[in-house]
Amino acid sequence: MVLLILNLAEYFANSKTIPVKDDKTTLDWWQTAVYYQIYPRSFKDSNGDGIGDLKGIEEKAEHFKDIGVDCVWLSPIFKSPMADFGYDISDYNAIDPVYGTMDDFVSLQKKLKSLGIKIIMDFVPNHSSDEHEWFKKSVEKIDPYTDYYIWRDGKCDTNNMRIPPNNWQSLFSNSAWTWNEQRGQYYLHQFDPKQPDLNYRNKELVKEMK
């Protein structure tokens, strides 16, 4: 019995892959990849302005290869007023100037691809910035943006004072509802008031996000 165990141990130690009974058990690349998460702002500054940027990341691409990285995970680099470190996106189709340009991003992609390294973006589709054009138009009830966000009428308490539609709390411990004077309604935000939640019951919004 001991001899059998030793023989099996030697077999697996000398095998590059462990045999499986069913090819369906093969894992996808993302299930076995080595990831390297980068917070661009504090990673590497290429132009001396004190803020990390895309060119700085590209300059370290060979380092990722040397340490066996399969995929770089970038924290938000989209255009943002930075109320929540880039998680409040004001334009999904633009790079925030503090990190560089779209050309810089394309250059980074090409460099990583040449080294066999994939790249994924840290992107939270739950909400946008309240400075996004969609939200501004939703406030003004300009179609098709009127219901791109979750709006509700308020209620009145026993003193006839306006209160939110319910007692939901945001993850930041305050009410999940903020009153918008211009529209005359409350909007929902699970995070900061500057991060209004998108309404995925709206088919036009779903098309936009795809």
Net shape: elongated
The name of the CATH topology of the largest domain is: Transcription Regulator spoIIAA
Number of alpha- plus pi-helical segments: 7
Please tell me the overall pLDDT. 90
Helix/strand-derived category reads alpha/beta
CATH architecture of the largest domain: 2-Layer Sandwich
Summarize this entry quickly.
This protein is an alpha/beta fold and 210 residues long. The protein contains 7 helices and 10 strands.
Describe the structure.
With 210 residues, the chain is an alpha/beta fold. It folds into 2 domains: 31-121, Transcription Regulator spoIIAA; 133-209, Oligo-1,6-glucosidase, domain 2 (Alpha-Beta Complex), CATH 3.90.400.10. Helix content is 27%, strand content 16%. It contains 7 helices and 10 strands. It has helices at residues 2-14, 29-32, 54-59, 61-66, 102-114, 133-139, 203-209; strands at residues 35-38, 71-74, 78-79, 91-95, 118-121, 151-152, 155-156, 162-163, 177-180, 185-188. It has a 3-stranded parallel beta sheet with strand order 1-2-5, with helices on one face. The chain has a 3-stranded antiparallel beta sheet with strand order 6-10-9, with no helix packed on it. Strands 3-4 form a two-stranded antiparallel ribbon. β9 and β10 form a beta hairpin. It is elongated, with a radius of gyration of 24 Å. The model is unreliable at 1-9 (pLDDT under 50). It catalyses: Hydrolysis of terminal, non-reducing (1->4)-linked alpha-D-glucose residues with release of alpha-D-glucose. This is alpha-glucosidase. InterPro entries: GH (IPR017853), GH13_cat_dom (IPR006047), O16G_dom_2 (IPR045857). GO terms for molecular function: alpha-1,4-glucosidase activity. Its EC number is 3.2.1.20.
